[in-house]
Every structure is written in C-alpha cells, then in structure tokens.
Write a structure and sequence with these properties.
about 325 residues; mainly alpha; 4-stranded mixed β-sheet; elongated
Length: about 325
C-alpha cells in the first residue's frame, strides 16, 4: 500500500466519511418510501382502476409519515448523544485513572496535549491484562482516553505515547462523535427489526381464524421486516466503512504528533497478539478500540465488508513507509 501523505489521507477520509454519514438519513427516507409503496400496493392492488393512482396513494401515506420517522431519529440521536459516555463506560468496565495512581500516563498525555494545543481529556483504565485502548466523548467536557492495564504495563514509553497519540487524533478529528452518530442510525434499523420480529407471532394470532385480511396483514408486516433488514444491512456497511477509514487516519495522526511512526507500528504488533478485552460484549462499542477487542486471534481485523477495523498488517505496512 503506497502512503500518500497525512494531510491528503485526512482530506480523503473526511470527505468519504462525511459522504457515508449523509447517506444514513437518505437511506431512512428511501426505505420508508419503498415500504409505503409496497404497503399501498398490497392494500389496494386495483388502485389505478378507481381513478386514484398508486403513486398518489403512496404519497398520501408517505408524506405524513416522514416527519414522524425523522422525529424518532432525532429523539434517538439525542438520547444516544447525552447518554453515550455512561453506556460506553458500563459496556467496557472503564474506571477513572487518578493522577497519583499513574503519573507516567498523565505525563505522556499532558505532553502530547500541550504540543497540539489540546485540552487535557479524562483518563480511564480497564482492569484487564490484554492490550487495547479507545477514545470516547462528544465534547471537551466528556472527551476521554481509556487504556487497558495491560497496554500500560506492557508497552514502553514511546509505544504507549504513540497509542495515546492515536486516540487523541480520534478526539481532535471528532471521530468518536461521527461513529456515535453512525451507530445511532444502525440502532434505529435494529430496533425496528426487533419490534417487527416480536410482533409477528401476535399478528398471526390476531389474523387467524375467519379474518380474510389476515394473510394480507402478515404480508405487510413481512414487507416492513424486509425493509428494516435491508436498511440495517446497508447502514452496517456504512458504519463499518467509516470505522475502517478513521483508523488509518488516526494512525497517520499519531505518526504526525510523535514524529515516530515506527513506535506505533511496534505497539500495533504487540496489541495484535492480545487485544481481547473480556468485559466488551457489544460490537458497536468494540469498534471504538484501536483494535477489535473481541478477537483472540492475532491480527483480529478482517478485510471483509463487515470488519470494523482494517487488517492490522496493512496498518503497520503504511506506518513503515514513512
């Protein structure tokens, strides 16, 4: 992989990530319209014969539904926006790391922040012997760098500094905020899918017996389920792509901050040998880490469409080309 320069990589990733993020609400609206069309068609298969076109009937259903759907998206976003820090800390088992407990970590973070003109983030620790780290927060008040106890104890100063610089780059570039927004949209599709799945048995009971419309109602529910599943699939692809691109950019930012890309390459080699964090059970939270924390095998990243991280070997290869 040919390295094209930090600033060029940042511009490209910013543009691509913004484009991917903008596709989320477009996907919501497009699937909503497709669902309204199918429901209208199933409910009124002979709409054209009555002098009222199928498109007009679809629009009558779609237009009042759009504000409601976007309102739900907004509410969901606000809840995630204000509660994400507590949710992430609970999902990872992170706890505050006091200055008196580890002056070494605080000195490394402070030196990097002063050099970059950044406000000092909070520092958390995960009591796990594996090697991993992540950044979280959506504003200066909640920005946090979280390190596992293993990564603190097993990396030398240059390697740990490079990892911290990687996480500070996520904060500086608002990567975490972007990922949280993308996770919100994926969560909406997941919620809708779950609601429909749980409604199916109930709808079958209500639609059974002598109700002639029963089959039609179940068919409409199945169409809605299909739309939600398609939305979840494509939204997940977008979220994973955002995560992969941001990791490359954060690696480049670390190299720029420390002027020592080889230190991060060395740290990534050690991390790839044991990134597994036992407390982490959720994939949406796992993508925040420098390496996927649920992979026990070396090089846990995958080149597949559904990988949250690029292959760690490729990241090391890019760093070694400086």
């Amino acid at each position: 992989m040919q390295y094209v320069g930090i600033h060029t990589q940042q511009r490209r990733n910013n543009f691509r990530s913004l484009l991917l993020l903008l596709l989320f609400p477009c996907l919501v609206v497009a699937l909503l319209y497709a669902g309204c069309f199918l429901i209208t068609y199933l409910s009124h298969p002979h709409a054209g014969e009555a002098g009222y076109s199928l498109t007009e009937m679809t629009n009558d259903l779609f237009l009042p539904t759009v504000p409601v759907a976007l309102g739900v998206v907004l509410v969901w976003f606000l809840i995630a926006y204000f509660a994400n820090t507590a949710i992430i800390n609970s999902a990872t088992g992170a706890e505050p790391l006091e200055r008196k407990d580890n002056m070494r970590v605080y000195n490394l973070v402070e030196n990097l922040c002063m050099a970059q003109g950044m406000k000092m983030p909070k520092i958390n620790i995960i009591n796990d012997s594996s090697l991993n780290a992540y950044a979280s927060g959506i504003n200066p008040r909640t920005y946090t760098v979280t390190l596992s106890r293993g990564i603190i104890n097993k990396l030398n100063d240059e390697e740990l500094e490079a990892v911290i610089a990687h996480e500070l780059t996520h904060i500086r570039n608002h990567d975490v905020r972007l990922l949280i927004v993308s996770i919100v949209f994926v969560g909406i599709f997941a919620m809708v899918t779950q609601i429909i799945l749980r409604s199916l048995p109930y709808m079958r009971v209500r639609s059974g017996g002598k109700n002639n419309n029963g089959a039609g109602v179940v068919l409409v529910i199945l169409v809605m389920l299909l739309m939600a599943a398609i939305g979840y699939f494509f939204a997940s692809l977008m979220r994973f792509a955002i995560s992969r691109k941001r990791e490359y950019m954060a690696d480049a930012g670390s190299a720029e901050m420390t002027k020592n890309p080889q230190a991060l390459a060395s740290a990534l080699r050690k991390i790839s040998g044991d990134p597994y964090i036992e407390a982490v059970k959720r994939d949406d939270v796992a993508q925040l880490f420098i390496q996927h924390p649920r992979m026990k095998a070396k090089g846990g990243g995958s080149s597949s469409l559904f990988a949250t991280h690029p292959p760690i070997e490729k990241r090391i290869e890019v760093l070694e080309q400086f």
